[in-house]
Design goal:
Blueprint lengths: L1 H23 L1 E7 L6 H16 L3 E7 L3 H13 L6 E5 L3 H6 L13 H7 L4 H4 L3 E2 L2 E2 L2 E13 H6 L11 H11 L1 E2 L5 E7 L6 H9 L19 H15 L14 H6 L3 E7 L3 H7 L4 E4 L11 E8 L5 H14 L2 H11 L12 H9 L5 H5 L12 H16 L5 H16 L4
Parallel strand pairs: 1-2, 1-3, 8-9
Antiparallel strand pairs: 3-11, 4-5, 6-9, 6-10, 6-11, 7-8
Helix pairs in contact: 17-18
Length: 427
């Protein structure tokens, strides 16, 4: 009898050891969108190492996969080859593309506990607009943003403007920009009043004009767009006029990547860019600057932007559970607050702003809360089925209008016709 008991105990111990060793081998591959090493990769590496310390049975393997676009292409290519990442930070706007590719799993199907449901409800509703569809949560907000206006207080003072007051609406922004635009004796512009970039993410900056003008560019199901609505055309006309008619901004296409540099070099007095540039501006602007919500037209408003955690369908159940655990770890109030302070992205959940560290940070650097306060007026970033092609149709239309190749109304009519054609199969 004792021999049988010993054998059973040995078998049980053997099975436990096997189970533990199997768990110890749970490795999750984590695609993160950054092209080069630097502070961000060091932060991600550290956070991954901290997670492993708390979860010794899980190994996180970060893969720095390039731009958001490159990371998406790599993830989908790997998915088709049968070797997808376990989890990835991809744009919130990639949600429909990833669903259509049958590449991702909703978080409700990975973990269905009460704790997990409470976690999914802990994020700002504005960020969840691009993270949920059909009653399911496909993405978890991580590095999210809104567009804000930055201004150089010194240049405002020089132009006779109140250095502590940003333009509240389009009319004021144009008036300020006219006062802030400087020319030399030959008539060449040496300082522009305002700069709204139109390369990289033209559609996103455009939503910074269409949203305050009281119109959304698509429906919540991602099956229809409204590019040719009068309010959309009116917003594009205003953008075009800033450069071509009023000459307070360079005409044509303005580079996304060099806009902050132009601001640091005092070539521009006001710029529109992501709040994700806040830490960059804080570290590099050698002058006093302000940050404000985008100017209103009919109302306030900005699109949200940035990246979500997604979990891939072809990963094993153990990997999916580990990836959801990792996403939960990375978005705790304390870590969301720290990530916001380190990068300038908006801490993605209200309780992150109540942490002692964040409260102290905002006290010393009040502009950090501007993007958060703008969330109450924010809408979902342009996201549809076949999003890449639909967005390209709009981007092409915007750039055609900005370069003078087409009138705004014609540009938007053509963009809408192309989007309707692409989305026909999803109706």
């Amino acid at each position: 009898m004792k021999t049988l008991q010993r054998a059973a105990r040995a078998l049980a111990l053997g099975l436990t050891a096997t189970a533990l060793s199997a768990f110890a081998q749970t490795e999750i591959t984590f695609y993160y969108p950054v092209a080069v090493g630097g502070p961000i990769t060091k932060t991600i590496d550290q956070m991954s190492a901290d997670f492993e310390k708390e979860n010794p049975g899980i190994k996180v393997k970060p893969v720095y996969a390039g731009t958001y676009q490159e990371t998406l292409v790599k993830a989908i290519t790997a998915q088709k080859a049968g070797t997808p990442p376990t989890t990835a930070i991809l744009l919130s706007t990639d949600m429909y593309t990833l669903i259509d590719e049958d590449a991702i799993t909703p978080f409700e199907e990975i973990n269905s506990g009460a704790d997990d449901a409470a976690w999914r409800k802990s994020f700002y509703p504005a960020f969840m607009a691009n993270s949920q569809t059909g009653g399911k949560t496909w993405g978890i907000p991580f590095q999210r943003s809104t567009i804000v206006l930055y201004w150089n207080k010194e240049l405002f003072k020089e132009a006779g403007l109140d250095p502590n007051k940003a333009p509240a609406n389009w009319k004021e922004m144009l008036e300020y920009a006219q006062k802030l635009t400087k020319k030399d004796a030959s008539g060449n512009v040496t300082q522009w009043g305002v700069q709204i970039p139109s390369s990289g993410f033209p559609y996103w900056l455009f939503q910074g004009l269409t949203t305050p003008n009281g119109v959304e560019l698509m429906n919540a199901a991602g099956t229809e767009t409204y590019f040719d609505k009068p309010e959309v055309v009116e917003a594009l006309q205003f953008w075009v006029d800033l450069g071509r008619k009023h000459k307070v901004m360079p005409a044509g296409v303005i580079e996304w990547g060099t806009t902050p540099k132009d601001f640091f070099e005092k070539k521009i007095a006001m710029m529109w860019t992501t709040t994700g540039n806040l830490t960059n501006v804080k570290n590099n602007a050698k002058f006093d600057f302000g940050v404000a919500m985008l100017p209103a037209s009919k109302k306030r408003g900005s699109p949200t932007g940035g990246g979500n955690f997604y979990v891939f369908k072809k990963a094993t159940k153990e990997q999916q559970v580990a990836a959801a655990k990792f996403a939960k770890f990375m978005t705790t109030p304390e870590r969301a607050a720290q990530w916001g302070m380190d990068t300038g992205y908006v801490a993605v959940r209200p309780d992150a702003w109540a942490t002692a560290k964040m409260t102290e940070y905002v006290k010393g650097f009040p502009v950090a809360s501007v993007a958060r306060d703008q969330l109450q007026y924010s809408v979902a970033e342009l996201s549809t089925h076949d999003n890449q092609r639909v967005t390209k149709a709009l981007n092409d239309g915007i750039q055609a209008a900005l370069t003078g190749a087409k009138e705004p109304a014609a540009a938007m009519k053509d963009a809408q016709a192309e989007a309707t054609r692409i989305l026909r199969t999803y109706k």
